Amino acid sequence: MSENKKQSVHSHPHVHLYKHSQLHRREGEVICELCGYSHDGMKIEEKAGVIDVAGVRIVEGDYDALEEQAITEMEMLTQWVERQGGIVGHVKTYLEERGSASSLTLAGGQVQVERTKESRTNVILSAVILNVDVEKLRCRVAEFLGRMII
């Protein structure tokens, strides 16, 4: 990552603020009636007022654009927590791009090779938050992960 990206400050709302979950719903995915996003792949635990949040999504899109989206979403999540009167211990997002794949098949004759170039990225969110409503946070994190589609 370039130094400019590390130091960039985003003050603009992201252009993809509509509910991606409505457009990119996965088969069998349950959508929350309160927020309109899936809570699949999320885990939230509260102990003594400290809320540990974890979430995972596999998304498609340009890696650099996903990185920029993650920066924006992290900033927006932090601002949301502060507006709720909460405290952010940390918010971390780990992006892991999945590369090309080959399927090799031998069913008599020559080996058939089918190659695909994948543009899928694992998005892994980890956060420690204090003093906010757990259910509201669950929906806000679901929104974060749901908008990680470029």
Task: Give the tags.
4 helices, 6 strands, 150 residues, 4-stranded antiparallel sheet, two-stranded antiparallel ribbon, alpha+beta
Tell the overall outline: elongated
Strand order of the largest sheet: 1-2-6-3
- Say how many strands there are: 6
How much of the sequence is in beta strands?
25-35%
CA(first)-CA(last) distance? 19 Å
Q: Provide the succession of SSEs.
A: HHEEHEEEEH
Helix fraction bin = 25-40%
Map the helices and strands.
Blueprint: H1 3-7, H2 20-23, E1 42-47, E2 50-60, H3 63-83, E3 87-98, E4 101-105, E5 112-116, E6 120-130, H4 134-146
Antiparallel strand pairs: 1-2, 2-6, 3-6, 4-5
Helix pairs in contact: 3-4
3D structure, described in words:
This protein has 150 residues and is an alpha+beta fold. Helices cover 29% and strands 33% of the residues. The protein has a 4-stranded antiparallel sheet with strand order 1-2-6-3, with helices on one face. It has a two-stranded antiparallel ribbon with strand order 4-5. Helix 3 runs antiparallel to helix 4. It is elongated.
